[in-house]
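Budget justification aside, the reviewers requested a transparent look at the raw inputs and outputs of the sequence design task funded under Objective 1. We therefore reproduce one unedited record. The lines immediately below are the structure tokens for a 224-residue chain.
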């Protein structure tokens, strides 16, 4: 019988010990931000150290915003990333080029700016992350939005739900949206880029207690 539980990505990690602790607590994917304006941006050296110490089977996701293809390829190789998450206005051609190079791509879609949810079919990605896009930075910035309005998207595609999630509302979000995975960052932090492990464990426990998801496919399966 296939595992139908909702998967978990903890994003915006900046400290090796916290990344390892999140993996050991049950995270399926860990996000490393390579976007200098973000307070969670990490250097290549820190990202490489995190990836080298994360237990096997936990996927490492590099988050990029309108970065050149060659820069993404270089970082994937240098750090040993399993996924490239494209969080800007990247084109379908960019996604296609990375997938052709053997890199699994997560393309972010937004409710309040392009690319919109309705453009999902244009992107030949491995998975789609969905959030509001209403903040000053490309990330969710802890902003909650109406998850249930795009439930149909998750019924046909492997979707990751992000934006405003925390231990108090993630169970509700899973029940409303039925995603393949959920993505959390600020909702489990003590400060930008610093994870509060009590919050992380509480978040993971709530996800495990939620109803099984009904989305198509699973996201975090490392190719390497």
């Amino acid at each position: 019988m296939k595992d139908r539980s909702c998967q978990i990505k903890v994003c915006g990690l900046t400290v090796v010990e916290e990344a390892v602790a999140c993996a050991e607590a049950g995270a399926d994917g860990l996000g490393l931000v390579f976007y200098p304006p973000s307070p969670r941006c990490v250097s290549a050296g820190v990202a490489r150290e995190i990836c080298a110490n994360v237990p096997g089977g936990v996927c490492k996701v590099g988050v990029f915003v309108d970065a050149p293809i060659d820069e993404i390829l270089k970082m994937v190789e240098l750090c040993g990333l399993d996924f490239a998450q494209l969080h800007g206005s990247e084109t379908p051609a960019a996604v296609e080029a990375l997938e052709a190079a053997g890199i699994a791509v997560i393309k972010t879609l937004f409710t309040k700016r392009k690319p919109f949810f309705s453009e999902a079919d244009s992107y030949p990605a491995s998975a789609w992350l969905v959030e509001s896009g209403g903040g000053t930075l490309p990330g969710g910035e802890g902003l909650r939005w109406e998850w249930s309005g795009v439930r149909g998207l998750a019924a046909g595609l492997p979707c990751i739900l992000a934006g405003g999630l925390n231990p108090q509302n993630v169970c509700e979000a899973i029940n409303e949206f039925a995603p393949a995975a959920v993505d959390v960052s600020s909702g489990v932090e003590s400060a930008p880029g610093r994870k509060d492990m009590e919050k992380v464990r509480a978040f993971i426990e709530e996800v495990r207690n939620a109803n099984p998801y009904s989305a198509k496919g699973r996201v975090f399966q490392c190719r390497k």
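The chain has a mean pLDDT of 90. The domain at 9-209 is CATH 3.20.20.70 (TIM Barrel). Computational costs for records of this kind are itemized in the attached budget.
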